[in-house]
Amino acid sequence: MKNLLAKFERMINTADETLAAELIPADSIFYAPTSPEPLVGPKGYLSIVEMMRGAFSDIQWHAEDFVADENKIAVSWICTGTHDGNFFGFPATGKKFKVRCMNFYYVDGGKIVKDVGCPDLLGIMKQIGAA
């Protein structure tokens, strides 16, 4: 699981499409507060990454801690970035943020088949001056 998480961290920090296709099956589903419907497959997951990179071009996620069993990984992420693009209608402020995010990843055959994410969007909004 540690190797899978390390590859996944590299994928979200680089938006690497090849790595996303290796780690995420086409029928995987992802629940994110930014979308009313689950996102599907590597392209769905990367759409969240790209949306965040559009608002914070230097955004980075770092797995601070995790616990895992044979089919599930719970990860505590530290997410940082600088607000240099539009974020939910709020223009760039140049302000930096640092928040904690929590995700549960469900694994089958060494691939991530489901993700339930809980990013601290309110924390981001407060730190960039949008809330």
List the helices and strands and how they pair.
Elements: H1 2-14, H2 17-23, E1 29-31, E2 39-40, H3 41-55, E3 60-68, E4 72-82, E5 96-108, E6 111-118, H4 121-127
Parallel strand pairs: 1-6
Antiparallel strand pairs: 1-2, 3-4, 4-5, 5-6
Helix pairs in contact: 1-2, 2-3
Short description:
With 131 residues, the chain is α+β, with helices and mostly antiparallel strands. It contains 4 helices and 6 strands, in the order ααββαββββα.
Mean pLDDT: 96
Total helices: the number is 4
Helix content: 25-40%
Main sheet summary: 6 strands, mixed
Radius of gyration: 14 Å
Task: State the end-to-end distance.
Answer: 37 Å
DSSP summary, beta strand count: 6
* Strand order, largest beta sheet: 2-1-6-5-4-3
- The low-pLDDT segments are none
Shape: globular
Q: Can you give keywords for this protein?
A:
alpha+beta; 131 residues; six-stranded mixed sheet; 32% helix; single chain; globular; 4 helices
Explain what you see:
The chain has 131 residues and is of the alpha+beta class. Helix content is 32%, strand content 35%. The protein contains four helices and six strands. It has helices at 2-14, 17-23, 41-55, 121-127, and strands at 29-31, 39-40, 60-68, 72-82, 96-108, 111-118. Strands 2-1-6-5-4-3 form a six-stranded mixed sheet. It is globular, with a radius of gyration of 14 Å. The termini are far apart. The model has no long low-confidence stretch (mean pLDDT 96).
